[in-house]
Amino acid sequence: MSAKNSLSMDFYKYLCQKIGYEEEVKVRRLFYIIHDLRAKTADKTQITSGSRGEGLQLKGSDLDLMFIDTTFQVYESDRDVPHSGWCMPLVMNTEDTHPGFTQLHLVNDHGLICWHDNTGEYALENTLHWQNLILNAFQLREFSSELYRLHTMAICSKFSRMLKFHGPCISTLEETHDIASCLKCDKWISEAQPWIIRPRTTWPSPDLISKIISCGVLFVPIGYKGSSNEHLQWRISFSVAEKFLIFSFSQTPLLCYALLKVLVKEIVENHEDLQGLLCSYFLKTLMFWISEESEPSMWRPNTIIPCCMACLKRLIYCVEYSTLLHYFIPDNNLFYLRFNVDQIEKMSSLLKNSFEKGIYCFTRSETLFDIITLHFNDTDSEIRILGALRFDLKNPVCTYRYNTCNLLYSLLHYSSSKISKSIFCTPI
């Protein structure tokens, strides 16, 4: 085995120890699936999303919960709405909305009558609960995402008053929980139909595609930022589909995805003016595109380092050109007007600096700071790790001063005899 492959294998084993072995990931996923099933009620279906739902154990990860509000049912056109049913029917209207967003309108007063007639005592109680929201919707003929969020906040406030809005979610002040109430359409929408048939290598498989489209899509209560009718719009969400896709990843791409999350959360986010510009959803989208365009044989434990660097290189490209297309609706550029010129320059510089240092850029992270305990097989590795150490030591207000001390101790304790002690006397 070559020196580079050997280092990749060491790195792969190290990441499994830090983030989770394949079996551990499966157990975590199963735990949250069972937790979601047990939490299901007559009017709510729970989905655990985010890192925890994906089976990743990362520091600082909050609990992301989505609740499908089964009081309402979304249809793509009036023709799809049944004449009777126990759900309040809502119909999509994408004529004046940005790709990936829609407005929802009520069909007619008959829809409300049918809803009353078919729901029984439970629905009557629920009707009273949503009375103001629904009456407002009938007056405007549009179902407001903003009002829906306010009503959801009112409900959650009964259990805790320490809450705030976080995008479409309601979050605790400590940001330990993110809760999003959403609506569902049981059918795959036409706007995402091209995804099913577009050319790809072998991922995702036809069976997986079939399973995904059978789950329909979700709608979360937030509009396109800056739109004149932002308060009425809903973002089309593919969270269920994305969970299926993440679950289909082998261990190597999953670890690459986790590495990007660590890079953003623990290195990029340390720069105040770059906070909030990149998020896990963007990284997930990036991984989907790379996985679709590459051969599965690329993702091997003994090639995890070049795979990781390829993912980081793609992220740098996306930032520099402000282009990251939505995976299911490519007409929606997620990076459109996302960064200003200064932010692009600084972000690109930071990411390129990380790319040059290779995997040892993670010495600056809290999760992987002890990466230097890996065995060094070549001089290039020594140079990279020393460069990463110098970067930290130059910063007098480094967030991870304590970890830097541990880094030096670990390097002294674990380094091979190849590394001369005189290195530590080199001026910084």
UniProtKB/TrEMBL annotation:
Belongs to the mab-21 family. Residues 178-246 form the Mab-21-like nucleotidyltransferase domain. Pfam families: Mab-21 (PF03281), Mab-21_C (PF20266). This is Mab-21-like HhH/H2TH-like domain-containing protein. Residues 256-350 form the Mab-21-like HhH/H2TH-like domain.
